[in-house]
Automatic annotation (TrEMBL):
Its EC number is 4.2.2.-. It comes from Shewanella sairae. This is Endolytic peptidoglycan transglycosylase RlpA. InterPro entries: RlpA, RlpA-like_DPBB, RlpA-like_sf, RplA, SPOR-like_dom, SPOR-like_sf. The keyword Iron does not apply.
Length: 260
């Protein structure tokens, strides 16, 4: 049901240390809290961009003679397997990235996801879901893929059984600065399709008018006696999207974005 005592091996300093003695904890065996507060109203973890912490993300580490390789990114990660949960024994002690474990929060432990990561967990038996913030290492059992906090296990209705078959899906939030920089360096060109007409003269006249109004070049593409007026190229998708919305509001409701 609960994590192996060897999980204490991963309390983080600048590296992942070896297993410490049992005297580190107030109790020997993990268990549920004896007088738990009402956790039914504890909210899901709220995904947001967080840089991966320096602690807890050593590229490789070893527990019980087995080595684990930490993923450089959680983007696109999905998995199915058995979830377990951990509670009172570890409550108030440090997690693998140096935070304090709170069994009443929506948190979790995973062997290889970078810390912190946000994961949507679904109990495949009852379809209940929860979003947790992964800030710890474990569980160190071959057949288990994630260790959930007491609150998360309560939400998934798996406290009595101790384990549950689950699906995991990372909710990945990219660094906003990196995303903006990538867009600035992007090689894609964006065009805004404004109108299409069989009247060539009207389309060409409108092209001149829109160029002057919006200070953006235009082009007219023809096929089968139909002339399509497009604004562009525009290098940044954000600017192209904004201009598309402006055109829709200013009399060209059928405008849409093209990317080449």
């Amino acid at each position: 049901m609960l994590r192996s005592n060897t999980l204490i091996a991963l309390m983080l300093t600048t590296t992942l240390a070896a297993c410490s003695s049992g005297s580190r904890y107030d109790i020997d065996q993990d268990k549920a809290p004896t007088s738990a507060p009402d956790v039914t109203k504890v909210e899901d973890a709220h995904p947001k961009y967080e840089p991966y912490s320096r602690g807890g993300n050593k590229s490789t580490y070893t527990v019980l003679g087995k080595s684990y390789k930490v993923m450089p990114s959680g983007e696109g990660y999905a998995e199915k397997g058995i979830a377990s949960w951990y509670g009172a024994k570890f409550h108030g002690h440090l997690t693998s990235n140096g935070e304090t474990y709170d069994m009443y929060s929506m948190s979790a432990a995973h062997k290889t996801l970078p810390l912190p990561s946000y994961v949507k967990v679904t109990n495949l038996k009852n379809d209940k879901t929860v979003i947790v913030r992964v800030n710890d290492r474990g569980p160190f059992h071959e057949d288990r893929v994630i260790d959930l906090s007491y609150a998360a296990a309560h939400r998934l209705d798996m406290l009595k059984t101790g384990t549950a078959n689950v699906s995991l899906e990372v909710i990945y939030i990219a660094n906003p600065e990196s995303a903006a920089l990538a867009e600035l360096k992007g090689t894609e060109l964006h065009f805004i399709q404004v109108v299409a007409s069989s009247n060539k003269a009207r389309v060409e006249s409108l092209a001149k008018s829109l160029e002057q109004k919006y200070k953006v070049k235009t082009r007219v593409q023809s096929a089968n006696n139909l002339y399509r007026l497009q604004l562009g190229p525009i290098g940044q998708q954000q600017l192209a999207t904004k201009l598309t919305e402006t055109l829709k509001q200013e009399g060209y409701p059928n405008s849409y974005l093209l990317t080449e």
